[in-house]
Every structure is written in C-alpha cells, then in structure tokens.
Write a structure and sequence with these properties.
The chain is an alpha/beta fold and 294 residues long. The protein is built from twelve helices and nine strands. The chain starts with 13 loop residues before the first helix and ends with a helix. The relative contact order is 0.14.
C-alpha cells in the first residue's frame, strides 16, 4: 500500500469545524480499535488480553466515521493492541488522509510477530530483528507517530520483550538520528519515576521517551470504581474538542469510555452508537447534535 502524504490544506468537516471552535483549534479523536492484545499486563486500564476479538470495532463502520473527521488536528489509534485489528492498515491510512497528525499506541509486537520475536531471541539475532522492524516501518504514512511502552509491566508479561526492546530502541534511535518518518518514541508509564529513569537509561532512549505515572493506583484506594469515577470533575463533563469511539459507542471523554469498558458503568457522556445501515451518512455529527453538545 503506498504511503499517504499529508495534504497541504485540509478544510475541516462541519463536525470538526465545531470541535475546533470549542477548543481553540485543538480538536482530536481517540479511537480504540479493540481490547484484544497478545499480552496480559497487570496495569492495563482496558483489561486487554488474548481472547478479546469480540471487542473489535467494525472496520467499515469506523472508516465511515473517520470520513467525518476531515481536518481534525490529530487522531490517536489505540487498543488493546490496535495492530491486531484485521483492518488496522486501512484504518491507519484513512486516518492519515483526514488528520494532520496520527498517533498510534502499540506494544509493537505485531510489527514482527510474537513467534518470530521468540525465535530471533533464542538465536540472539538482534540484527535480524532490526531488519524486520525497518521493513515493517517503511510502509507507514509519513505523518504518523508511534509510541511504544517502556515499563516493567510489559517486560513481565512477555519474557522476550527485553530482547524486543533492545532491537526496537536501536531502530528508534537510528530513525531519530536520520530524521526518518514515521516518528517513533516510547511511553514510560511506571508507578515509580525512579524505575522509569532506570529503563530509559538502560535502553538509551531519553531523547524520545515521554514519562508518565501509572493511573490505575487511585482506583485501588476507592471503595468502588464508580466512587473513583465520580470523584473527578473532569469525569462528569465533556472534554472540549474531543471524540472518543470504541466498539460500544461514542463518548464525550475518556473516563466515561473506560468505566463502560471496565465496569459497565453507563453515563450521559456516552452519547450514541454508530450504524452500518445503508444511507447513514454524517451520523457522527448527528450523534453529537442529539446529545445537545452543539
């Protein structure tokens, strides 16, 4: 599939124009393709893991929705592991046509394959791993940014992930030095900043790592997940300029989507569903209008 080139001028769709007006031009969309993942990390706020193929959002339905996001500032594609979705590449290229920047949050395993990583690790074939990674990355659109996890959770969930990170970090540093696209980086989402610093130093990726703190800890301090949800004002109102979509519906902020996924807690910030019915055009905008958000 040929690379998408970033259009010089993207006239916003009516939906995006309204989102831009509400957010000083900072419109964005988060699309969660699936809860399916090769791993079962202890910290995962999406409770992702193997056997969640039923959580894949319908590809044709999503492509229709992405049509309405023309001119949006950025689209983030996440999961689970988004690359496990059978339509991932088609969805990625469509998003790259509509948005000025596309972010992908991925563990990266699907770029090579879990079995292939294991076989390469047994032979300690780092050169072979890097070659496979370079080949997989060369086919992606230029204005895509892929962020990979750098934390002990993934290292514990897959015994060969340290070998994989060794090869991946080398490729990331190489591409950063040569200013190659797509841009690559890491997310260090650890409970301890000290552990983040140790991993960043170990894999020599300080210049391309975003540090963070794992957000699951507050949930464990609350009597119920619902109590934690309602304790934060942001979780009770929309986030200006944002669109959140997964297989269960359309939401006005990430917290409402997370609570629905994890606990089945429905809120008025879940504003509708998308339909594949013939003739259903501009339905994402209609969902927002019905919610009286505009």
């Amino acid at each position: 599939m040929p690379k998408n080139r970033k259009p010089a001028d993207l006239k916003p769709s009516p939906l995006v124009a309204r989102l831009n007006a509400q957010s000083d031009g900072n419109s964005f969309a988060f699309i969660y393709l699936t809860n399916e993942c090769q791993l079962g990390c202890a910290h995962c706020s999406f409770q992702s893991g193997p056997g969640y193929s039923h959580t894949r959002i319908d590809g044709s339905l999503l492509l229709r929705a992405i049509e309405e996001l023309k001119g949006i500032r950025d689209i983030t594609i996440s999961g689970g592991e988004p690359m496990l979705h059978p339509d991932f590449r088609t969805i990625l290229h469509k998003a790259a046509q509509q948005a000025r920047v596309v972010y992908v949050l991925s563990n990266g395993i699907s770029l090579v394959g879990k079995n292939s990583i294991t076989a390469l690790a047994r032979r300690n074939d780092l050169r072979g791993l890097k070659k496979k990674l370079r080949t997989a990355l060369d086919d992606l659109p230029d204005h895509v940014h892929i962020l990979f996890p750098l934390d002990t959770f993934h290292l514990r969930a897959f015994r060969r992930y340290d070998f994989f990170l060794e090869g991946l970090s080398a490729v990331v540093r190489e591409r950063e030095r040569l200013r190659l696209k797509p841009a690559l980086g890491f997310l260090s989402n650890e409970v301890s900043p000290r552990i983040s610093d140790e991993l960043i130093k170990r894999f020599s990726v300080a210049s391309c790592t975003h540090r963070g703190t794992a957000l699951f800890a507050p949930w464990r301090k609350s009597k119920t997940v619902q109590e934690w949800y309602y304790s934060h004002p942001l979780n009770r109102r929309p986030f200006a300029g944002g669109v959140y979509i997964n297989y269960k519906g359309v939401y006005l902020n990430e917290a409402s989507l997370l609570m629905d996924l994890r606990e089945g807690i429905a809120t008025d910030l879940k504003i509708g569903m998308l339909s594949n019915a013939p003739g259903e055009h501009n339905q994402l905008e209609r969902v927002y209008r019905r919610a009286l958000f505009f």
